[in-house]
Each structure stands twice: as C-alpha cells, then as structure tokens.
C-alpha cells in the first residue's frame, strides 16, 4: 500500500481511538498488521501522530487552560491544585516508562497481545460499570492528591498495548470516586504531558533510523498528524456526550468484538 494512503488511514484510526477506552496504540498496531507494513519502520509515526490528537484537546479546552494559566499567575488555589494533580498523575508514567522502555517496545511488536488485551479490557469495563458506584468528586481541582497518584499508576497499565490509556485512567478515576465527566476530562488533560514526553523520547530514539531511510518520512508523519487532529476534534465532544448518556458499556462490547475478530484474523493470517 502507498505510504501516503496508509498515513491517512492510520491518522483516522488514531484520531478516532486516542480518547476512547479502546486503545489507540493497540488499534494502530492491529491496523499495521492487517495492512501488512513493517512495524519497526512505522513505530515513530505511531507515537508522533498522537500529538495531533492531543492538540485537539488543547484547542477544544483552550478556555480551561487559559483560566488555569491566569489563575496560576494570581496564585489561585484551584488552578494550583489543577496543575498539581496533573503533575502527580504524570510522574508514575514518566518513571516507569523510562525504566521499562525496552520491554514496552518488545510488546509493541506483538499484535496478538493487543487482541487479547482488548478482550480482557472489555470484560473489565463491563465488570467495573456494574460494580462501581458513580463517584461524587467533581472538577479536576477537587481531586485529592492521593487519587491523582492512583490514576497515574493505573495509567501505566496502558504500557501494555491494547489496554488503553484513556480507559485505564477514566475507569481508574471512577473506581477512586471521581464522577464520569471529570474522570474523562482528567484523562484528556493527563494525555498532554504523557504523550508529549513519549513523543520526545521516541523521536530522539528514532532519528538515526529516519536519517538512514529506515523510518517513515516527515511527509507521512505530517499528514498523519493533521488527519489525527481533525478527526479527534470531532470525536472528543461526541465521546463525552455518549459517556454521559450510556456509560462505557458500548465501548466494552466493541473491544470484545474487535479483539476477538482481530485474534481470529491474526491466527488465520
């Protein structure tokens, strides 16, 4: 398949899945396996285009970020707690991600791990939706520091491809007493430092491969970035509305079906 067409397809996949509890990395790996491309050659592409989806959150929630920035300048306690909670939640992924980098990269090349994780994660979502009572903590600034740290550690589960970063953080926040909308927004905002950090590390580690022509080029990365940004703009607000009305059940069943189908196709491939 032409690299430009593949970049567009993968950009759409990333934009649709980054903030849904279905694992964007997992879908990119499965899409790559089904498209038949070289995983190692597209590995940096898959990381960097996530910044396109992250930029969509910055654009959609610019008023929130502006309010927080103004509040920090005025030493507003709410703004300080907002930033504190995001930083606390980011720390576990930053530390564990660096220490476990080689093991994570090995898992990224195993599509069957993704398919199994999709199925298991879907079942976990159904169980959590049934067992966990709705939380009452509303607003990111109101989240206790220990809860933010717990969400940060749960985010690390997403280092296993197919687990879903957004799913781990949103459902983790719910189990720790945070209400649905705040849990979703906490996940969106936490993605910014997390994916920025991952992209910097991955870019630095793959520059030699790009210079040697063993990685997808800048044009494909730019196209994937723009497509992911546009699609994510449309998906984020839709997702918040769906979760508010129907919970996470529809995404759980999607994971189970998609994971089962992918596992069957990979077994036959």
From TrEMBL:
Question: Which GO biological process entries does UniProt record here?
Answer: cell wall organization; peptidoglycan biosynthetic process; regulation of cell shape; response to antibiotic
What residues form the membrane-spanning segments? 19-37, 44-62, 82-101, 113-132, 152-176, 183-201, 221-240, 252-268
Catalytic activity annotated for this protein? di-trans,octa-cis-undecaprenyl diphosphate + H2O = di-trans,octa-cis-undecaprenyl phosphate + phosphate + H(+)
A single GO cellular-component term from the record reads: plasma membrane
According to its UniProt record, the EC number is 3.6.1.27
Q: Which UniProt keywords apply?
A: Antibiotic resistance, Cell membrane, Cell shape, Cell wall biogenesis/degradation, Hydrolase, Membrane, Peptidoglycan synthesis, Transmembrane, Transmembrane helix
Report the function annotation for this chain. Answer: Catalyzes the dephosphorylation of undecaprenyl diphosphate (UPP). Confers resistance to bacitracin.
Protein name (Swiss-Prot/TrEMBL): Undecaprenyl-diphosphatase
Query: Which source organism?
Result: Sphingomonas zeae
